[in-house]
Structures are given as structure tokens and as C-alpha cells.
């Protein structure tokens, strides 16, 4: 299980952005993390994957544990080796490298598993196999999102942190990405899914959390969140 306990995060020594967040991502599950812009979702993912320091952020209280072991003081590469991979918002592929080169970069922490992981990624995303020697910058938005997912899978993660994978994609592609995330989960990868698209996230998650200005304000099974009046109004536009 990935567990976050009473986590407090500060940017630039003064700005308190997470105010005591606790959340559980049980092994094997998909958990959705919802919230408006600026609520602190990306900050929470960065805190889990050890990337806060890069952004002048600091954990000032609380802890993150993976299978009971505290990881919040580890470097990002050590956290990746413990089985956590993050796909950042905006599908940051290395635009000048080929599809295969991007995937190989993603696999650098597991050099012995590169061949098997390439095969697995190409089986999940046949379009990446077709474009294997093509330059990543020329892929469509949906294909770049697949490449970003594939690159994260190259590290053989047990936990995958996804930051808005549906952002900017047309509805048919959002469904495709959702189905692929569900398939990755069926293959045994636990997923923490940050999404503005609450409908998409709650359709595959078993549980959801809502973050508001750095605090968890709702923590419920996905089915209950889908029926909640406030969620329907603010996140599903069904008010
Ligand atoms: P979004 O969906 O817009 O990314 P979010 O819920 O992911 O929103 P965060 O990106 O975690 O929210 O941002 C939470 C708060 O922290 C915001 O007020 C933001 O301006 C601030 N913040 C984020 N990154 C930094 C940084 N590197 N330095 C200072 N403040 C930051």
C-alpha cells in the first residue's frame, strides 16, 4: 500500500500548500484524486515521487510510506527503484528523440528489463510499435500521452502516479486512455489518478479523494462520489 499521513508541504519556505493530507492507495486499486486548479494535487504527486525539491517545495510534516517503509526523505531515483513512477502533466516526451529512445530513457533504472518492458509497452500500445523509429515530437497528443505512459511503465512500477492524462484530449481519446489505464491496472499496477475529468476518473477508480486548498474534504467510494450532489454540480456539470 502507498500511504500518505498528515502531509504538510511548503513552497519557498512560507507558502503552506498541503495542510495535513492523509490518503491510502491500496495495492491493486485505482484511486482518484480530484480537486480544482491549485488545490495541491500536483504537489501531492511530487511529494510522493520525491520531486518537490526540484520545485523549491519541502515536506515539513507527516510522511509517505510504500509498503510501510518511509520514502519522503529519499531521492527521486530511489523512489522509482522502490516501484513508483510518475507521468507528469502535459505528457513531457523528449520531442527530438524517437519513440524507442524515449522508452529506453524510461527504462534506465531497470536496464536488465528493457527488452521485456519494450515488448509489454508495444503490446499495450501497438501504435507506438508502428512509430518506434519515428520522432516523438511528431506524434499526436493522444499518442504522446501513450508514450508518456509507456515510458513510465519501462521502470516496471508497482505504483503509477498519473497527472491529468486526459488533459486536452478529444472524448474518444479520453475513453481510450481510460481503458488503457484500466488494462494497466488489471496487469497488476496500482494507480493514483489525478484528474480534472472526474467522470473519467471515477469510472475506473474504486475510491476517490477531493482536495480543496490543501486539505482532503471528501474521501469516499467512487460510486458514492458519483452520486454526491456537490461532486455532480462542481465536477460533473450536472447541477
Ligand atoms: P493544477 O491542476 O492547476 O496543476 P493542482 O491542484 O495540481 O492544480 P498544485 O500545482 O499542486 O495544484 O499547486 C498548489 C499551489 O501551490 C498553487 O497555489 C500553486 O500556485 C502553488 N505552487 C505550485 N508549484 C509551486 C512552486 N514550484 N513554487 C511555488 N508555488 C507553487
Amino acid at each position: 500500500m502507498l500511504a500518505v499521513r498528515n502531509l504538510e508541504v511548503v513552497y519557498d519556505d512560507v507558502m503552506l500548500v498541503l495542510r495535513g493530507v492523509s490518503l491510502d492507495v491500496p495495492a491493486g486499486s485505482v484511486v482518484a484524486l480530484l480537486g480544482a486548479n491549485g488545490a495541491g494535487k500536483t504537489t501531492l504527486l511530487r511529494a510522493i515521487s520525491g520531486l518537490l525539491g526540484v520545485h523549491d517545495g519541502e515536506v515539513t510534516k507527516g510522511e509517505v510510506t510504500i509498503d510501510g517503509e518511509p520514502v519522503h526523505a529519499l531521492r527521486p531515483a530511489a523512489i522509482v527503484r522502490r516501484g513508483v513512477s510518475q507521468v507528469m502533466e502535459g505528457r513531457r516526451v523528449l520531442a527530438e528523440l524517437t519513440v524507442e529512445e524515449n522508452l529506453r530513457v524510461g527504462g534506465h533504472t531497470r536496464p536488465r528489463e528493457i527488452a521485456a518492458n519494450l515488448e509489454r509497452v508495444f503490446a499495450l500500445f501497438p501504435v507506438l510499435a508502428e512509430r518506434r523509429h519515428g520522432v516523438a515530437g511528431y506524434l499526436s497528443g493522444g499518442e504522446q500521452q501513450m508514450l508518456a505512459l509507456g515510458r513510465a511503465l519501462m521502470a516496471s512500477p508497482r505504483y503509477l502516479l498519473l497527472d491529468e492524462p486526459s488533459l486536452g484530449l478529444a472524448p474518444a481519446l479520453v475513453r481510450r486512455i481510460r481503458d488503457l489505464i484500466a488494462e494497466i491496472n488489471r496487469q497488476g499496477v496500482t494507480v493514483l489518478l489525478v484528474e480534472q475529468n472526474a467522470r473519467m476518473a471515477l469510472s475506473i477508480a474504486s475510491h476517490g479523494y477531493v482536495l480543496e486548498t490543501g486539505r482532503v474534504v471528501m474521501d469516499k467510494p467512487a460510486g458514492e462520489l458519483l452520486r454526491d450532489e456537490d461532486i455532480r454540480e462542481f465536477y460533473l456539470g450536472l447541477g
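The mean pLDDT is 93. The pocket of adenosine-5'-triphosphate is lined by residues 11-12, 15, 17, 35, 37-43, 55-56 (CB under 6 Å).
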